[in-house]
Amino acid sequence: MWNRIQQKLTPHSFRYKVILTSIICIVIPAIITLFINSYLTKDAMKEQALSNANRELNLASEYVTKLLDDMLYVANFVQIDSEINSILKKHAKEDENSVVQQDEYYENYMEYSKVAKTIENITLLGEKSYVTILLKNGKHYTNYSFSEYNPKQLFQEEWFKELDGVFGYEAVWIGSQPTVFQSEQKSNPYQISVARTLRDSNLKIYGYVVVTIMENKVKQAFESMPGKEEMMLVDSSNKILSHADNEKIGTSFPYLEQVKKKDFSNIITISNQDYLYADHKISYTGWKLVSINPYKQATFKINSIFNKVFLAQLISFIIFFLLLTYVIQTITKPLVHLGDVASSVQSGNLNVRSHIHSKDEIGRLSTSFDSMLDRINEMIREITETQVRKRRAEFAMLQAQINPHFLFNVLNSIRMKVMKKGDYESAEMISSLSKLLRMTIDKDKGMISFKEEVDIVKDYVTLMNMRQKEAVKFEISVSAAAYLEAIPRFILQPIIENSIIHGLNQSAGEILLHAYIKGNDFLITIEDNGEGMDEESLKNLRSKLRLNSDSITVQNKSGFSSLGISNVYERMRMTFGDTFHMEIESEKGKGTKVVMSVSRGGRR
Question: pTM (2 decimals)?
Answer without folding.
Answer: 0.47
